[in-house]
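Pilot study result, target chain (147 residues):
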Amino acid sequence: MGGIKVMADYFAQAATRHLHDAQVLCDLQRWDNAVYLAGYVVECTLKALVEIYKGKKQTRDYGHNLNKLQESALTELRLVSPKAATRLPKTTGTVLEKNHPGRRYAQSNLWTQSEAEKAVNRAREIHKEIIPRLVLDGLIPSEALLS
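Predicted structure:
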């Protein structure tokens, strides 16, 4: 009989896994679920950054609020790497800034192909700007890049 596995928050690897799955869903024209997972890519990516610079407890304080997470992550990034902070794409202008994670309960066919593709692409840009940099800086293990 196996024991219960304790789940630790591992935001970086979760972000990478969600990004892979969001792309698969987009490829399968499952727009709503692609958008839903793209939101988690952004959330987990930003929480990975916040966790490193502010601590694990701080990540819980934000819940699923992407706007607050984004503000905090940008503040931390400006202190550590002002150049990186200016390159970090924001969720503004995409459906990612709307109703995360409440969209999981939304009606089907809420998001269009264009909206879903834009959301997944923006999530990829945010992930790409943060997670590999954290690996290269030795702040998180390279397993964070595995989905």
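One observation from the pilot: The domain at 11-141 is CATH 1.20.120.330 (Four Helix Bundle (Hemerythrin (Met), subunit A)). A full batch analysis is planned for the follow-on phase.
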